[in-house]
Specification:
Blueprint lengths: L3 E8 L6 E6 L2 E5 L8 H14 L7 E4 L5 E6 L4 H7 L3
Parallel strand pairs: 1-3
Antiparallel strand pairs: 1-5, 2-3, 4-5
Length: 88
């Protein structure tokens, strides 16, 4: 199965981790971690993995390490599964 890639807009320093919803083709997620030392990126990957029911190691950051716009790769899940689990 090819890796599923997803565009994510991250809002760091939120009051809690939460899925906001879809903005066109981009998934908006609020993360409580600060954007320093990669903590928000790590928490984002943990949050997405937990929501999808895959291992933390299955979610990787492809691009956007220092940006709010990121691309995540998730090889253990299909695009159809991802869309259904994120209510799309």
């Amino acid at each position: 199965m090819p890796a599923c890639r997803i565009s994510v807009k991250v809002v760091p320093n939120a009051s809690k981790d939460e899925l906001v919803g879809w903005l066109g083709e981009t998934l908006k997620i609020r993360i409580a971690a600060p954007p320093t030392d990669g903590r928000a990126n790590e928490r984002l990957c943990q949050f997405v993995a937990a929501r999808l029911g895959v291992s933390r190691g299955a979610v990787s950051l492809v691009s956007g390490a220092s940006s709010r716009q990121k691309i995540l790769s998730i090889p253990e899940i299909s695009l159809e599964e991802l869309n259904s689990r994120f209510n799309r």
